[in-house]
Structures are given as C-alpha cells and as structure tokens.
Task: inverse folding
C-alpha cells in the first residue's frame, strides 16, 4: 500500500463507497469491491453505501431501499466481513452531509467546473441537472475525510474526484492553520480491473446506467446470461493476438483479454500465450466459463442474503453505529476549528 501524506500521524484507514443505483456489474466488482475484501485484513476499513449520492439523480424510494440492501448483500457475498470492516449506509451518519456543507465553503467553483464526470452525467442539458450532481465530488470528499481516511480503493473513473478530495483537505488545513489535520487521501486504483469497458463498445466504461443490458455483466446474472452476453460481446474478425502489441487499436479484444486476466489472476501476457492465434469461438466460451466460475458463488450468496432484508438492515444499523463513533468526534473538532460554538 502506498504511503500517505508524510506528516499526517493518524492511523491508516480505508474508506470507499458504492452507489445503490442498481445493476451492480463486473466493473464494480473488479475495480472496487474485490479490492475492499483484501484491504479489510490489514487496517480499519469502512465500506459505505452512498445513498445520498444516489439521489443526485431521480430514484424511486422503494427501489432505492431495495438497492441499498442489494449493495450490502453484494459486499458480504463478495467476502467483506461485517466483523472486520464497517458496512453502513451514508444517510445514517449525518456527519457526511454536515462536513459536505463546510467543504462547500472550502472548495472553489472552478475546481468543480473542471470535473469531467459532471459533464458526462449532466449531458447537454446541464441547466437541468440537480445542484447535488454538481456538488457530488464535495460530498465524496466529506465521506472520506469524516473518518480521516488515508486510502481509498476505487476504479480509474474516480481518479479526478480523489484529486479534488486531496485539494479540499489541503486547502482546509491551510485556510484554518490546522496543519495535517486532514490526511491527503491516497487513491488505490492500480491493478487489473481498474477500468473494465462495455461489452458493446471498448471505448466506453462498463456502467450501471448504460441502457443496453448486453453491455455489462451484472452480479445478479445467471450462468446462461453471462455466457450469452460474452458470446454477443463485440470483437472483430481477427483471432486473439499473440502478444500485447497486437492488442493496439482493438479495444474490445483488449477488454475481454483484460477481464480474463483480472478474473484468473494471470497476466495479460500469460493469457495471450495461452489463447494467441485462436479464434473467439474458443476464447469466448473459456472466458464465459471462468466468469461463471468466479461470479456464480457471489450471486448465489447475494440472492440468499437478499431473502432476509431484516438481517441486512440490522447489519447496516450496527455498521452505522460504529461509523458514527468515529465520525462524530472528528466533526466536533472540525466545528471547533471552523469557529462554531461546540
Ligand atoms: P455509473 O456507471 O452509473 O456511473 P458506476 O458503475 O460507476 O455507476 P458507482 O457506484 O458509481 O457505479 O461505482 C462504484 C465503484 O466501482 C467505484 O469505485 C468505481 O470507480 C468502480 N467502477 C465503476 N465502473 C467501473 C468499471 N467499468 N471498471 C472498473 N471500476 C469501475
Ligand atoms: N463517487 C463514487 C462513489 C463514492 C465514493 C465515495 C468512492 C462516493 N463517495 C468515497 C470512494 C470514496 C463512485 O464510484 N461513483
């Protein structure tokens, strides 16, 4: 794990979040959740279900509740142990929203105007986007810093948001002469699976919000569906290349080989050594078999856990209590620093 800002002397602490917006997919698993599992072993870790972020775009209230439980189930099914890591939903810890307000007064308009995800998500009609969608990265900084988290495992698409969180932490420390009060959180992005692409377009990220379900492998897909989606994945007429050079200009092929590599633990070179020269009639069934092998136990366990919503909610409540116990004293210090009567 990379070293954090040299002078921050607090404990190492991991924080990350996933939005309860449905269609949890292979990209979310390989880019984020799988890393969460390993990180829970060595230091304190908090894994949040960011329901406040979810409502930056319209959500059906009942669906939002069910999707919140779905992420809790996915976390646990993937191997996050609520005895080791803190699993909770963001709205249950009011420190997130309170700190976000204070950070709204630290962050600069220009910083937020440079965020590419807002531009992508708001689309052409940005006048009609919610203020929350624009402010999304500030809330994300508050999520992390409410716990003085030092390390943040995320997919590649979150890199810019993490840089903003570091800028906010640094400016707060400087403006309030509170040197090293907040750590400058380190993104943990590297590794296979940091950027899984759509099965239909090797230049677009695999996404929950892609209107085509064939573009992604959902964690809830059964074996037949996974096989069908891989079979229908876009490729070209050439066979699998023999070496990494041969992946150039073939983003869809690069993506499928990358997925094989991330799921199997083999390097891309090893995958190409095994399948180079073969047609996709051979490679795709092998990839489908591997994906089913790795994902079926997770989706089965997710289904089992989702049959018991009361259990999932009790786990979230217990997690929220532990999260509050960390965040409340930090927020109190922040209020003191800012000049509020506490
Ligand atoms: P949307 O696609 O609607 O933007 P999302 O799939 O990015 O949503 P989030 O809850 O915002 O879902 O992301 C959860 C985690 O999954 C984040 O750490 C994010 O970086 C990671 N992630 C999302 N998509 C991918 C992907 N295609 N490849 C690797 N990691 C991903
Ligand atoms: N924006 C993230 C989700 C998220 C997050 C966080 C990730 C919200 N708050 C704090 C890491 C740390 C996304 O994946 N779209």
Result:
């Amino acid at each position: 794990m990379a070293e954090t800002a040299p002078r921050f002397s607090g404990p190492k602490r991991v924080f990350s979040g996933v939005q309860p917006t449905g269609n949890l997919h292979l990209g979310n698993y390989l880019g984020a959740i799988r890393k969460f599992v390993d990180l829970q072993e060595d230091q304190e870790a908090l894994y949040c279900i960011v329901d406040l972020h979810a409502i930056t775009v319209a959500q059906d209230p009942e669906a939002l509740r069910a999707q919140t439980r779905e992420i809790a189930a996915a976390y646990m099914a993937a191997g996050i142990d609520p005895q080791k890591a803190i699993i909770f939903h963001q709205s249950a810890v009011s420190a997130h929203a309170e700190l976000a307000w204070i950070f709204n007064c630290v962050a600069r308009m220009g910083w937020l105007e440079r965020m590419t995800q807002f531009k992508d998500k708001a689309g052409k009609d940005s006048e009609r986007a919610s203020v929350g969608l624009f402010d999304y990265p500030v809330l994300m900084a508050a999520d992390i810093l409410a716990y003085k988290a030092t390390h943040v495992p995320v997919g590649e698409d979150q890199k810019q948001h993490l840089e903003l969180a570091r800028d906010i932490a640094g400016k707060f420390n400087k403006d309030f002469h509170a040197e090293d009060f907040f750590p400058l959180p380190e993104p943990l992005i590297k590794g296979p699976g940091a950027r899984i692409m759509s099965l239909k377009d090797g230049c677009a990220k695999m996404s929950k919000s892609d209107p085509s379900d064939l573009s992604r492998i959902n964690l809830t897909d059964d074996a037949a569906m996974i096989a069908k989606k891989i079979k229908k994945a876009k490729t070209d007429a050439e066979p699998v290349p023999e070496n990494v050079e041969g992946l150039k200009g073939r983003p869809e092929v690069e993506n499928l080989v990358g997925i094989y590599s991330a799921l199997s633990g083999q390097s891309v070179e090893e995958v190409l050594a095994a399948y180079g020269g073969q047609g996709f009639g051979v490679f795709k069934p092998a990839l489908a078999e591997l994906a089913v092998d790795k994902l079926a136990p997770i989706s089965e366990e997710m289904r089992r856990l989702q049959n018991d919503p009361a259990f999932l909610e009790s786990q979230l409540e217990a997690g929220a209590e532990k999260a509050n116990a960390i965040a409340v004293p930090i927020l109190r210090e922040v209020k003191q620093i800012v000049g509020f009567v506490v």
In short: The longest helix spans residues 309-338.
